[in-house]
Amino acid sequence: MVAISSWRSVPARARGYVLCVALGGAACVAPALRTDTRWSVLALLAALYAGGEHAVRRDVAARTFFPVLLAGIFLLPPAAAALVAVPGALCARVERQPRGLRRIWRAAQLALAAWASGHAYAALGGPVAASAPDFPYVLLPAAAAVLAFAGVLSVLDGGILVTAERVPARMAWRGLLPRSLAPVAVHGLAGLMMAVLWSSPYGPPAALLVLLPMGVSCWVFEQYHRERSAHQATIRALVQAVDLKDRYTRGHSERVGRASVLIARELGMDDERVEVLRFAGILHDVGKLGVPTRLLRKDGPLTAQERRVIELHPEYGHEMVRGIGFLGEARAAILHHHERIDGSGYPYGLTGTHIPESARVVAVADAFDAMTSTRSYRRARPVPAALAELERCAGAQFDAAMVGALVRALDRYGWDSEVTAGDGGAEVAPEGLPAAVGHEVPGAVPDHAPQALADLPPTYRPARR
Fold first, then answer.
1. Residue 320 domain boundaries
2. Bridge partner list, 378
3. What pLDDT, on a 0 to 100 scale, did the predictor assign at position 429?
4. 460 vs 94, 161, 265, 463, CA distance in Å?
5. What's the CATH number where 342 sits?
6. Which end of the chain has the least Cβ crowding within 10 Å, N or C?
7. Is 453 within the bounds of a domain?
8. pLDDT of residue 96
């Protein structure tokens, strides 16, 4: 019953897309069952890949054991090479539901990629079993095989983003090929080395030595993955703690993080800083944990003394995250996201560029989401009206460059507020703006969005118009 419900949780068009890819993968491997296949080579390569899939996390195995798949491309005909990954992918460890659908997807995706890669290799005259005498002539066919392998993976991953994650088609494939090409190229070189050693007098045992450095790579990536998971768990716990205290603006923190990413990318920040800005947006109001619950849930206006208590939350938040090293400059954004360009903000009344850049980004993202989210006492403003208000206040309350970046980003990608109305509560509106741009209390990071079956590395997924 659980398995059936988890399958139904995947959009119908995504299930249909996976089915089509699976049928394509089956058509690719079928010829290997009808021709004279080098079953001993295929079986050993398939066992190596299956062992890797079973031994470590699936996303780690994919990055570590691609050389085995690519070695199969250089040693076997395309249909047989497509079959190498299938047993391992179908019996791999999968952590998220629906496990069966994810296994089928992965097996079909790798089969199609290997099949296309094998045909690209053969089309440029690549030998069926690459060996040392084939150098340097084998390098061009091998490069074509690597490009085809990465290209097919990127095309299929983009399709799953469109069908399962509802990413706009104009954005789904952006950046996928460049991100996958470099690692696949490295794995292709290792796979070619495996194939050459396999065909040498030393045979398969020598080829297996190539996997030793890949094993080290596996361990390093596993440590990175665990550290990143710990970071995400820390952030989720902090935001959910605030949500338990006041559910009034559930989802606000995640949306502020998303808007911060839009601004950061538009400003040309590198991926590491973009990730930090996402953390900053999600955690910007974590200091509300130090504010008495009765004030956060108060109906009616706040007194001057109550307002001063709530305005302490940036400092509370900064103290809470002071020892979390991976947050980096996000800590400054948490402390200063209510500073104003003209110096009338809090807690320290900083002006202009004395306000940290991260805080200027989050301030704009925070105000934008406040205006475009529905509350119990008023409807959400349309995005154009919210942007017009931000532009009106640019240079006084907000950094004009950050406002301009958000305007350009939303014009390109659009915005989906995914608003969740609250059940009432106090809101502190900064002077100079209507209550719609007031202070918000963050909610838990939402889990309801479907996760891409591709299990891609964390990337920004643009909102729909």
1. 226-437
2. 375
3. 37
4. 23, 11, 9, 9
5. 1.10.3210.10
6. N
7. no
8. 75
